[in-house]
Amino acid sequence: MSHTVAEIAHALGAEFAGDGDLSVARAAEPGQASPTDIALAVNPKFADQIAQGSARAAILWQGADWQSMGLSAAIFVVHGRFAMADLTSHMDRGPEFEPGIHASTHIAQDAQIGAGASIGPFVSIASGVKIGAGARIGPQVTIGRDTEVGANALLHAGVTIAHDVTIGDNFIAQSGAVIGSDGFSFVPPEGLDIEATRRSLGSAHDVWPGGPAKWRRVHSIGGVEIGSDVEIGANTTIDRGTIRATRIGRGTKLDNLVHIAHNVEIAEDSLLCAGVSIAGSTKVGNRCVLGGQVGVNDNITVGDDVIAAGATKIYTNAASGRVLMGSPATKMQTQIETYKALRRLPRLFTQVAELKKAVSKLTNSD
């Protein structure tokens, strides 16, 4: 699919110069761009790379001397990252769905499918399900009983949504996502109080009572509630609540391989990167950003606008607005100062040893 420079500029809400009728097929990095590509050089530091490629058109920063770069056309943007978002949205063809419902799909008789929905092969839709208008459902998707999915949903191949799940409009789930799986809740054998052990920091540790480990399952009879405009990454799992629902607020985005345990509540517009794990019954506030592999303890509260660097481990409540790092999580500035101090320890030990020798010599000389 080709796009003219004028069409792209209009989609970006930006000005262009040169040949607006010039067609490009895709976007590319400046040094690798072909004559049919539009080069992305939204920062002056990429200017030298344009000559390494052969692009005739480029997206540039405001005030760039595009003609000196040998270009036939240029689009000028103020905010490069926002331009990237608009450009990719304009050029992304997305997955292709044939209209209508594939013959191999199994849909319960009482399920309600909204107008204009596209449903691929080998999809299973159970009794009581409601699918909103314009939904696109890929191959081998499974949707459990009494689940509701809002309008304009995009479910990629292999998504599993269990029973009693409620999802808002404009929902996106990547392949392999599982929503509404059972929570990991087991009661230990009589005579073993794991919670007491944790409260006492190990001083009240009970030994294993002996015999087989007869863990008792606590069944998850709560559901999952997901707001509108939520996106779920590939192979991400969201457990259903034990009694009340696990909740994901409007506009929140979950990356690949994120795990949300039972009864967790995540508020609106938060961003959870790859490998984040949030333990049961924890609450995460609005507009939080958790970097890759962040771990959050159970039964705590993370306030609004918290940012946690990658691999941070949050064991206790985090106040709103905190920027955290490390394990256990501390303020980022404190963590960096601590790390610097740790790096100085070998030198400090050497200095102390030298001082001990000097003091010993002075003492012996007396």
Describe the structure.
The chain contains five helices and 40 strands. The chain is an alpha/beta fold. It has a twelve-stranded mixed sheet with strand order 8-11-14-17-20-25-28-31-34-37-39-40, with helices on one face. Strand 5, helix 2 and strand 6 form a beta-alpha-beta unit.
Features:
366 residues, alpha/beta, Udp-n-acetylmuramoylalanyl-d-glutamate--2,6- Diaminopimelate Ligase, Chain: A, domain 1, 12-stranded mixed β-sheet, 10-stranded parallel β-sheet, 5 helices, 40 strands, 17% helix, flat
Q: How are the elements arranged and paired?
A:
Blueprint: E1 3-4, H1 5-12, E2 15-18, E3 23-24, E4 26-28, E5 37-41, H2 47-50, E6 57-61, E7 73-77, H3 80-91, E8 100-101, E9 106-107, E10 112-113, E11 118-119, E12 124-125, E13 130-131, E14 136-137, E15 142-143, E16 148-149, E17 154-155, E18 160-161, E19 165-167, E20 172-173, E21 178-181, E22 186-187, H4 194-199, E23 216-217, E24 224-226, E25 231-232, E26 237-239, E27 246-248, E28 253-254, E29 259-260, E30 265-266, E31 271-272, E32 277-278, E33 283-284, E34 289-290, E35 295-296, E36 301-302, E37 307-308, E38 313-314, E39 323-325, E40 330-331, H5 332-365
Parallel strand pairs: 4-5, 5-6, 6-7, 8-11, 9-12, 10-13, 11-14, 12-15, 13-16, 14-17, 15-18, 16-19, 17-20, 18-21, 19-24, 20-25, 21-26, 24-27, 25-28, 26-29, 27-30, 28-31, 29-32, 30-33, 31-34, 32-35, 33-36, 34-37, 35-38, 37-39
Antiparallel strand pairs: 1-3, 2-7, 22-23, 39-40
Would you tell me which CATH topology of one domain applies? Udp-n-acetylmuramoylalanyl-d-glutamate--2,6- Diaminopimelate Ligase, Chain: A, domain 1
**Distance N to C terminus:** 91 Å
On the 0 to 100 scale, the average pLDDT is 94
What would you give as the CATH superfamily of one domain?
MurE/MurF, N-terminal domain
Q: State the total count of DSSP E strands.
A: 40
Strand ordering within the main sheet: 8-11-14-17-20-25-28-31-34-37-39-40
Main CATH class of one domain: Alpha Beta
* Count of runs of 4 or more consecutive helical residues: 5
Q: Give me the CATH architecture of one domain, please.
A: 3-Layer(aba) Sandwich
Structural class comes to alpha/beta
List low-pLDDT spans: none
Q: What general outline do the C-alpha atoms trace?
A: flat
Helix content: 10-25%
Our estimate of the beta-strand percent is: 25-35%
